[in-house]
């Protein structure tokens, strides 16, 4: 995978949007919202103008027109260049072909799960599972509605999101069963880690403080 001149996913979203037709930045933002791209890409609309300027700097977009209507400020319209089409194509090819390591916050929490007692983890995971199941039900319902008006091509990211939530719910459900049955390897050591002991009650060992000297022992 080559190193890209721009790595902000918003830049790729802008290139894909301008592939449809030339637009000014405000219209780009409206199009991204209308097409639901903010559900699959973290979009900071405040930095959109900066992203467009960076794309222009690298020759991926260019000014195609300057619009002015009445007393409104001028609006600069941008279009994608041949270099921008090539960049978008290569970038998309890399993203589709090569798995990238991501760092979901839940994965971070799981890697540090030992700081909680197993008995505390069970109700927390049950709460998460309830939330996931609500999310799955609403996601399925929304997809069924969208299938009525949109080709599946424009809904594959929604399908993927739903599938990932379903997979997470399945894993959480299985992990909860292991905890409830006490079948998780190492669970007894995990529990004993949280049992009070001298080293945990007193904290780290410290050097003893010297006893204060009496008046006759003090150095002049």
What do you see in this structure?
This protein is mostly helical and 220 residues long. It has 9 helices and 2 strands. Strands 1-2 form a two-stranded antiparallel ribbon. β1 and β2 form a beta hairpin. It starts with 8 loop residues before the first helix and ends in an 18-residue tail after the last helix. Residues 202-206 and 215-220 have low confidence and may be disordered.
Quick structural summary:
The protein is mostly helical. It has helices spanning 9-20, 25-34, 48-57, 82-97, 105-111, 118-147, 156-181, 187-193, 198-202, and strands at residues 61-67, 75-80. It contains 9 helices and 2 strands.
SSE topology:
Layout: H1 9-20, H2 25-34, H3 48-57, E1 61-67, E2 75-80, H4 82-97, H5 105-111, H6 118-147, H7 156-181, H8 187-193, H9 198-202
Antiparallel strand pairs: 1-2
Helix pairs in contact: 1-3, 1-4, 6-7
Q: Can you tell me the overall shape?
A: elongated
List the helices and strands in order: HHHEEHHHHHH
Q: How many strands?
A: 2
Radius of gyration: 28 Å
Strand content bin: 5-15%
Helicity, in percent?
55-70%
User: In terms of structural class, how would the helical and strand content be classed?
Assistant: mainly alpha
Low-confidence stretches: 202-206, 215-220
Largest sheet: 2 strands, antiparallel
List its salient traits.
mainly alpha, 2 strands, 9 helices, two-stranded antiparallel sheet, 220 residues, disordered C terminus
């Amino acid at each position: 995978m080559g190193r890209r001149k721009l790595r902000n996913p918003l830049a790729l979203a802008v290139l894909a949007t301008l592939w449809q037709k030339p637009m000014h930045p405000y219209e780009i933002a409206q199009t991204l919202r209308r097409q639901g791209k903010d559900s699959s890409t973290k979009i900071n609309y405040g930095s959109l103008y900066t992203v467009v300027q960076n794309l222009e700097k690298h020759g991926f977009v260019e000014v195609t027109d300057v619009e002015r209507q009445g007393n409104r400020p001028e609006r600069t319209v941008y279009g994608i260049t041949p270099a921008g089409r090539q960049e978008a194509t290569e970038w998309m090819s890399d993203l589709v072909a090569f798995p990238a390591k991501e760092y979901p916050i839940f994965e971070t929490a799981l890697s540090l799960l030992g700081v909680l007692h197993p008995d505390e983890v069970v109700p927390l995971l049950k709460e998460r599972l309830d939330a996931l199941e609500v999310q799955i039900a609403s996601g399925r319902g929304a997809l069924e509605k969208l299938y009525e008006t949109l080709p599946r091509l424009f809904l594959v990211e929604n399908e993927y999101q739903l599938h990932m939530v379903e997979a997470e719910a399945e894993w959480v459900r299985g992990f909860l069963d292991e905890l409830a049955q006490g079948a998780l390897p190492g669970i007894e050591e995990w529990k004993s880690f949280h049992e009070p002991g001298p080293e945990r009650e007193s904290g780290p060992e410290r050097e003893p403080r010297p006893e204060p000297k009496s008046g006759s022992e003090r150095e002049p």
